Amino acid sequence: MLDAVVSFRSVPRILELFHSQTSLELPWTPHFTSVINWSLRVGLGLLRQVCPTCEPWIAIIDYSIDIGTKKALVVLRVKTQSLRQRGSAIQLQDCECIGLKVRETVNHQTVCQDLEDIFAIAGVPQAIVKDCDYTLAKGVRHWSAKQEKPVPVIDDIGHCMASALKSQFEKTADYKAFTAALGQGAKCLRQTEFACLTPPKLRTKGPFSKHQ
To answer: Nearest Cα to 100, choosing from 133, 126, 122?
Structure first.
């Protein structure tokens, strides 16, 4: 069995290959925009079915990619039993999206209100995992302060280590030379057949690093 992740645009071509190279008979091939619409409908349907669970779980919260001028707060539910059984990094099947809030303006008050709305439907987690974003941290603190029992907050280790390493090395000559080389290398690889090897863009500031 082949398990792979493909883009929406590739789905029609893949289905055409199945139709031409296998015994699978397809009366028609959907346009990729239809596949996107179907996926969105499935996601919306699952989001509307969120309800509390008797099993202990933790919440992972973060902002997704900007939607135009708006920002989307995403909350995932991961059962602690899944963490114990996995014994390693969690996978997609371990997560359940329990909340999605899109706003034009984001501050600690909107974060607090969005968490109240989401957890009122999904229940209260045993802990919250987030990155080091100031707005998220303040919003979570305000929400936690309103609870009968404070909910532990866990900072994402990856962001913590990145912040610690940056503060230690960002002013050194080696670090500056390294980041300059990455930028130059990426520039040379773009628009070439080796673009897939382009290093990730270095973000010196988070998208919501400005205190609101």
So the answer is: 122
Tens digits of per-residue pLDDT, 68-79?
678 889 999 999
> 100, 72 in Cβ contact below 8 A?
yes
- How far, rounded to the nearest angstrom, does the alpha carbon of residue 35 sit from its chain's CA centroid? 21
Q: Which amino acid is at 110?
A: T
The helix (run of H) or strand (run of E) holding residue 63 is: strand 57-63
Whether residue 61 contacts residue 75, with contact meaning beta carbons closer than 8 Å, is answered with yes
Helix H or strand E segment including 21 = helix 11-21
3-state secondary structure of 130: strand
Give tens-digit pLDDT for 168-195.
888 899 888 888 888 888 888 888 888 7
Which of 32, 94, 104, 37 minimizes the C-alpha distance to 66? 104
- Supply 187's token pair: 């520039």
